[in-house]
Design brief:
The protein is 47% helix and 0% strand. By secondary structure, the chain is mainly alpha-helical. Helix 2 crosses helix 4. The termini are far apart.
């Protein structure tokens, strides 16, 4: 009966608890890692916003009756795949609904020329009768 207690032996009273704690730790870590999207460790929302902006550029080019090559040339630095996806979506939408595009006019420098504001002069007639106060 003179047995020495060894904490890592299979017959120790804590071996069952140690085995269970390892499994619980593995399960707990798996649950934590599966919730990475909830912690804000998922994809950056700015990337999705840039992609949506590029699709809008492509749709606007299609509605403006621009070719996809012109759209690429006018929008350097924007994701071409997203521009193309937006262009295709708008093309399908316009064909499905039988819509005509609206030609946009640009000057050779690539910027639209704003129209000069028109000033309107309004002459108000002077009232003949002045208010008399007593």
């Amino acid at each position: 009966m003179n047995q020495k207690y060894h904490p890592h032996s299979a017959s120790s009273p804590f071996s069952c608890c140690l085995f269970m704690s390892r499994h619980l730790l593995i399960i707990f870590m798996a649950m934590l890692l599966s919730a990475c999207d909830m912690l804000g460790l998922g994809p950056d929302p700015r990337i999705a916003q840039k992609e949506a902006d590029a699709k809008a550029v492509g749709a606007a080019c299609r509605n403006g009756l621009r070719s996809i090559e012109d759209c690429y040339a006018l929008n350097k630095g924007v994701n071409k795949a997203s521009i193309y996806a937006g262009w295709l979506e708008m093309d399908a939408y316009m064909r499905e609904n039988k819509l005509e595009g609206q030609r946009s006019e640009i000057n050779p420098s690539g910027t639209a020329q704003p129209e000069a504001p028109v000033e309107e002069i309004i002459n108000e007639p002077k009232s003949k009768a002045k208010a008399v106060t007593h």
